[in-house]
Amino acid sequence: MYTVVAERFIRLVLEEEFRTLSDPEQAELEESKTFLQNYFWEKEKLQAMSYLAYATNDNGWQHEICAQVERLQGE
After folding, report:
1. Is there a contact between 8 and 21 (Cβ–Cβ < 8 Å)?
2. For a Cys-Cys bond, which of 29, 49, 70, 71 suits 75, CB 3.0-4.6 Å?
3. CA-to-CA distance for 75 and 68, rounded, in angstroms?
């Protein structure tokens, strides 16, 4: 899911350099931006939690975090 949204976002940003986006395209750009912001926020949070789990040697928590990362990445 991330890849599809990221590619569409990039395409719209680049297209916007050459012409004004239509209202539906502008809405799609904003929705994509929000999705990507949320995705990266969640990814950063999980990376921080993963470090804490590693630092405290909490293997159970580490496995839970890995499962969340896999779900986030669509695996």
Report:
1. no
2. 70
3. 10
Report d(CA 61, CA 52) in Å as an integer.
9
Give me 43's structure tokens.
């990814």
DSSP line for 30-73: HHHHHHHHHHHHHHHHHHHHHHHHHHTT-HHHHHHHHHHHHHHT
Print the domain residue range for 65. Answer: 2-72
Cβ–Cβ under 8 Å, residues 3 and 19? no
Mind listing the pLDDT tens digit for each residue in 1-39?
788 999 999 999 999 999 999 999 999 999 999 999 999
Q: What is the pTM of this model?
A: 0.82
